[in-house]
From TrEMBL:
Domain of life: Bacteria
Provenance organism: Streptomyces venezuelae (strain ATCC 10712 / CBS 650.69 / DSM 40230 / JCM 4526 / NBRC 13096 / PD 04745)
Enzyme Commission number, as recorded: 3.5.2.6
Name of the protein: Beta-lactamase
Organism taxonomic ancestry: Bacteria, Bacillati, Actinomycetota, Actinomycetes, Kitasatosporales
UniProt xrefs under InterPro entries: AmpC-like, Beta-lactam-related, Beta-lactam/transpept-like, DUF7586
Length: 463
């Protein structure tokens, strides 16, 4: 996915029917007054559909819904922008930039990944349905005992934590969070229908009775200091633009490498959460054999979800205006699955590496290498990158990026961050590969090879 495109290849009619059927079932079974679904493919909004309890009045991609905790992703992007500008470091304690909170020992990274140990909710009344005037200061948001766990141990979702991050953005920028959001994310991405307060056309929030088909309106409170945790209203059209950004980055907002950093798991999952984890402001989910990144959201009267499958080049949005019932997270994941299975992505054509990147010395390093008796293959990629993987059976595999000073650094798996280098003899020939002290040789335990501990002089033998 790149930025939003103006032209695209339409989905097949059968795919569109399956998508609309999924939305229709979600609206009917979830008893939602209205439900909107949308699909993004390769950066473009390629499908949308909706159902409503009012004939002829179904919402479209320009109708606002409240998106709840999807707001947290926007706040996290603002913090990552500050990091990229050198205004702060993720390992900085909060106190270094925001004084007197009573929770200043937690790091910014812990707040982003919900491993700060802070409570999930504010003390006192249910903050989503009560006036922000009850919480005029951060001390009112955190309470006298803000921690329920030791910081840094594991993931524990915290709405007050994102209130602190919003206040951090305001402290460093010197202007309100909402203004920073508008200037640094919404305007560059063309998200003109994403606002702090509702702007018509927008859906009304409803509570549907659990045992009868009747409903009543939900209040819509201004969240005040809690706004960075869940205030925003948005549309399927705007969230499609945001999904394209989360897939590929945008230099006007946040470069792709920083977005990729947000997508990496940041803390150990809580008990029972083994299918999902949390990055730096993004929820991560394994479903139907694919990895989804994004976020869910809910506030009284509304539920929302946005999932992106970077590998499939797909994203989906699901929005409904009911407090509970519609399973937007499951629907958004299903919309991705429907398109991925019905219209799988075409791979890019194979092409040789550019002539300028070809290097005989690198080519000589490719092929089989042995860690002890385990056989691995080294393959050359674009931009002088390499990959190392077992030739059979289970084993550690990783991709490596070339370093300017020579060698490579691991990008994933066990070897992420570790250095791979070719060790040469005095005559310039390659002796072995060194990967974080592990020695890889051309032959398994050859007598002349630099095998740690040496090789038995009698060599290989039978029984």
């Amino acid at each position: 996915m790149g930025g939003m495109m103006t032209s695209f290849e339409a989905l097949l009619p059968g795919t569109e029917r399956a998508l609309l059927h999924r939305v229709a079932v979600a609206q009917a079974e979830g008893r939602a007054p209205s439900f909107v679904g949308a699909v993004v493919r390769d950066g473009a909004l390629v499908w949308s559909g909706s159902r409503s309890c009012v004939d002829g009045h179904a919402p479209d991609t320009d109708t606002q819904f409240r998106i709840g905790s999807l707001t947290k992703v926007f706040t996290a992007v603002l913090v990552m922008r500050l990091r990229d500008e050198g205004r702060l470091a993720l390992d900085d304690p909060l106190e270094r930039h925001l004084k007197g909170t009573g929770a200043g020992e937690v790091t910014i990274a812990q707040l982003l990944g919900h491993s700060s140990g802070l409570a999930a909710e504010t003390p006192g009344q249910w903050w989503e349905r009560s006036s922000a005037a009850l919480r005029p200061e951060l001390s009112d948001v955190l309470g006298e005992q803000p921690f329920v766990q030791a910081p840094g141990r594991r993931h524990h979702y915290s709405n007050p934590g994102y209130t602190l991050l919003g206040s951090l953005v305001e402290a460093v920028r010197g202007v309100p969070w909402a203004e920073v959001l508008r200037r640094e994310i919404l305007e560059p991405l063309g998200m003109n229908r994403t606002t702090v307060d509702p702007v018509a056309p927008h859906a009304g929030g409803w509570a549907v009775h659990p045992w009868a088909d009747v409903m009543l309106p939900e209040p819509s409170e201004d969240l005040g200091l809690m706004a960075p945790a869940g205030q925003l209203w948005s549309t399927a059209g705007d969230l499609a633009r945001f999904a394209a950004f989360l897939a590929a980055g945008d230099e006007r907002v946040l470069v792709s490498s920083s977005v990729e950093e947000m997508r990496a798991p940041a803390a150990a999952a809580g008990e029972g959460d083994w299918e999902g984890s949390y990055g730096l402001g993004l929820q991560l989910l394994r479903r139907d054999g694919r990895t989804l990144i994004g976020h869910t959201g809910s506030l009284p009267g509304f539920v929302a979800a946005l999932w992106v499958s970077v590998e499939d080049g797909l994203a989906a949005i699901a929005l409904a205006n009911a407090t509970s019932g519609p399973l937007t997270a499951a629907v958004a994941a299903d919309l991705v699955r429907i398109v991925a299975e019905a219209e799988p992505r075409f791979p890019e054509p194979w092409r040789p590496i550019p002539e300028a990147e070809f290097d005989e010395e690198l080519l000589a390093l490719t092929g089989p290498w042995y860690w002890g008796t385990y056989a691995y293959g080294l393959r050359l990629g674009a931009d002088r990158s390499v990959s190392l993987e077992p030739l059979r059976g289970a084993g550690r595999r990783a991709r490596f990026r070339a370093l300017p000073e020579g060698g490579w650094v691991g990008l994933n798996g066990y070897y992420e961050g570790e250095t791979l280098r070719a060790v040469r003899r005095a005559d310039g020939s390659v002796s072995h590969l060194d990967l974080g002290s592990f020695v890889f040789t051309r032959e398994p335990y050859a007598p002349a090879d630099a095998v740690p501990g040496g090789v038995d002089e009698a060599g290989w033998r039978g029984l």
